[in-house]
Amino acid sequence: MPQRLRYYSTNRHLDQAPGITPFKDTVSFREALLMGQAPDEGLFVPEQIPVLPVEAFRAIKGASYTQVALLVAETFLAEEIPAETLRQIIDDAYNYPVPLENVFARKYILRLDQGPTASFKDFAARMMARLMSAFRDPGKRLNVLVATSGDTGSAVGDAFRGVEGIDVTILYPRDEVSGRQKRQLDTIGQNVQAVSVDGKFDDCQNLVKQAFSDPAFAGLNLTSANSINFGRILPQIIYYVYAWAQLARETESVVFSVPSGNFGDALGCEYARRMGLPVEKLVMPTNENDEFPRFLETGTYEKISPSRACLSNAMNVGHPSNLARFFDLYGGTVDRTGFVHRTPDLEEMKTRIYSASISDRETKKTIKKVYDQYKVLLEPHGAVGWRGLEVYLELFGDFPLCVSLETAHPAKFPDEIRELLEITPDLPQSMKDIDERSGHPAFLSTDYGEFRTFLKGRLRDAD
Ligand SMILES: *Cc1c(COP(=O)(O)O)cnc(C)c1O
What we know:
Elements: E1 7-9, H1 29-35, E2 44-46, H2 54-58, H3 65-77, H4 83-93, E3 100-104, E4 107-111, H5 121-135, E5 142-147, H6 151-160, E6 166-173, H7 179-186, E7 192-197, H8 201-212, E8 222-223, H9 230-233, H10 235-247, E9 254-257, H11 264-274, E10 279-283, H12 291-298, H13 323-329, E11 333-334, E12 340-342, H14 346-352, E13 353-354, H15 360-374, H16 380-396, E14 402-406, H17 414-421, E15 442-444, H18 448-458
Parallel strand pairs: 4-14, 5-6, 5-8, 6-7, 7-15, 9-10, 9-14, 10-13
Antiparallel strand pairs: 1-2, 3-4, 11-12
The structure holds pyridoxal-5'-phosphate.
């Protein structure tokens, strides 16, 4: 019987840091999932990363996505959830294709853009939503509150639609999301309610924070489906193992390139390697928010504030939240504000990870070049990933098997694609009727009293 995995906080060593009371305990996966963040504002990480024998990887050569998902998920969760429940969750979550598109030789694009909201965030959100439903207290409803400025909200909202025992309230800033994003959020329906706030993203976040600390809601199981939840990292290990299982010969190594913002996606690759997957190098290209490539080069970490507005807008992050987990894995500590308490082993990090900053100009050039040369269509995030891979191969020499991730569907960026390529990308199946859908958002001001009354009328505590 394997030992039950425990999770600790990345801030557990910070005894001397002002304003932080380190959380020294460990928690189960269930607790980490339902708590989201550790009480000391650190991130939960597994105490040990379970290692699979080479035979386990060999055995999944050519396996389906759901088979690979089950292997990875069971490795972490076998002690906490029945195998049959896990199998149902996975079958239900992953009901769309995961294409590997060949570019040239043995260089591939892994397309993670076929889910219901056409970004890779569907992979994590869909599994996390179902895990939360399975792990909630029986009979008690969970109430998820999210503030969003765009894509995360629709992925999370869609993932929770129809999920038993959970109600979701999504707040978005009325004038800061695009018309199409607004429609995506307003029309999710069922147990998911959109709230259009007459304010900014920060106002939405403040309303959510106030609700979390409001004693009136203490008995109502409020939770956030935040991107720092370990429940969103675990599902992101799976597609690296799947790509390898589809493409590798024998126990061949692979180079992955992962366009990176908050580093949760790339963290999935880091964990896959630590589980024993043969990964030659993890390439983590960023846009012009280059705090991480600079750190690898100079050993000095300086967050970028405010973050720079680049074409690959989901990666406009000046201090990646999951850097705390990367630092921890390499023996360092960085806190939520970007202050480095202990520097990680930089040499070790550099043997495993390469990072480069890709400018908007290079991003556009790459979209055009890859389309003209190979007839492969990329959007800005995927182009940052591909260009990062090219830079890596130019610097370190060719490597036979490489996979670069496409994290969103090109149809989400029609203007950029039209300008560069003079074509209009087809909407994915899941978004075809988006312009005709109608929804019923609630309209609220930034006043907490008003939001409180609204929530009181909406939230239920039992099934
Ligand atoms: C969120 C997002 C990213 C960045 O992923 P991280 O896990 O935050 O590094 C990249 N591309 C797209 C399309 C995204 O939505």
